[in-house]
Design a protein that fits this description.
71% of the residues lie in helices and 4% in strands. The protein has helices spanning 8-12, 23-50, 54-62, 68-76, 78-105; strands spanning 17-18, 108-109. Mean pLDDT is 87; it is low at 1-6.
Length: 112
């Protein structure tokens, strides 16, 4: 049996209208991209910190590089480090959801 394909919007009973593109949309998209990159970097830092091998941790412990003392301080309290990373990533992800909703709401008219 052959059926006619009906677009989804027609089966719902309305049309979707798009608002004109404004500078706010481009700024919002740029901020959205920055938030997505930030989320990726924070998630990557979580993986990097918590996948260090014992030999890597030992090298950091005895290392004389100027950043080793910062890493020693961060790794000395792993619970606080993990909590900070997870909370910051959650805030970034909440920002992504809020901004995405705002951009879609101001770009697409679903009133029909």
């Amino acid at each position: 049996m052959e059926t006619d394909s009906i677009p989804l919007w027609a089966s719902i009973g309305g049309e979707i209208h798009f608002y004109p593109i404004t500078a706010d949309l481009f700024v919002g998209l740029a901020v959205l991209v920055l938030l997505l990159i930030s989320s990726a970097l924070v998630s990557g830092s979580e993986v990097a910190f918590f996948s260090l091998s014992p030999s890597d941790k030992e090298e950091i412990k005895i290392g004389k590089h100027k950043n080793h003392h910062i890493l020693r301080d961060l790794l000395s309290v792993p619970e606080n480090l993990l909590a900070t990373i997870l909370v910051s990533n959650n805030f970034i992800n909440i920002g992504i959801v809020i901004l995405s909703t705002y951009l879609v709401h101001n770009t697409v008219d679903f009133s029909n």
